[in-house]
Amino acid sequence: MGLPPLPDPAVVLGASASSWRDALGAVGGALVASGATTPAYTDAMTAMVEEHGPYIVISPGLAFAHARPGASVLRDGLAVVTLASPVTFGHPHNDPVSVVLGLAVAEVGTHLESIGAIANLFNDASVTGRLAAATTADEVRAIMGVTTA
Q1: With 0-12 CB in 10 A as exposed, 13-18 as middle and 19+ as buried, what is 46?
Q2: Which of 52, 66, 93, 111 is catalytic?
Q3: Residue range 96-111: average pLDDT?
Q4: 52 assigned to active site
């Protein structure tokens, strides 16, 4: 499966966020706008951070937001949000965050493939900075090696 497609509504560049909750709201809103999830999924992503802490900040400047599959996931989806000003999630080494990925998977069995594909992509330390500097959705898709549909 690799990474799900990244349609235009799932890419938000230069979003304004004053807190990690706002940043998750932006990426959740992009998942909703793309038709992948309902707003309840955004709440679930926020609850994961409230419960487990800033574990989603997986490398310097990058947060990888997700929650469990469930009724709030309409189809597999990926969203990318870059922030106009980085925000702090409370991670001891990888704050502040300037790029937030959102991943929604409809079935439990497929999420490990998507997570593996994201991990492989971000093995290249330059990817986060290139995404943060991207000015178009097409540029984001080219960096990530994904399609629109």
Answers
A1: middle
A2: 66
A3: 87
A4: no
Query: Which residues lie below 8 Å from residue 114, measured CB to CB, with a gap of 6+?
Result: 1, 2, 3, 4, 76, 78, 103, 105
Q: Please give the pLDDT value at position 112.
A: 67
Indicate yes or no: pTM above 0.85. Answer: yes
Could you count the other beta carbons within 10 Å of the beta carbon of residue 88? 13
pLDDT for the residue 44: 97
Mutual orientation of helices 39-52 and 20-33 as an angle, nearest 10°? 150
Beta-bridged to residue 55, according to DSSP, are none
pLDDT one-digit tens code per residue, 120-131: 888 888 999 999
Q: What is the 3-state secondary structure (H, E, C) of 95-136?
A: CCEEEEEEEECCCHHHHHHHHHHHHHHCCCCHHHHHHHHCCC
126: left (phi over 0), alpha (psi -120 to 50) or beta: alpha
Helix, strand, or coil (residue 49): helix
Mean pLDDT (the chain) is 92
Q: Which helix (H) or strand (E) holds 24?
A: helix 20-33
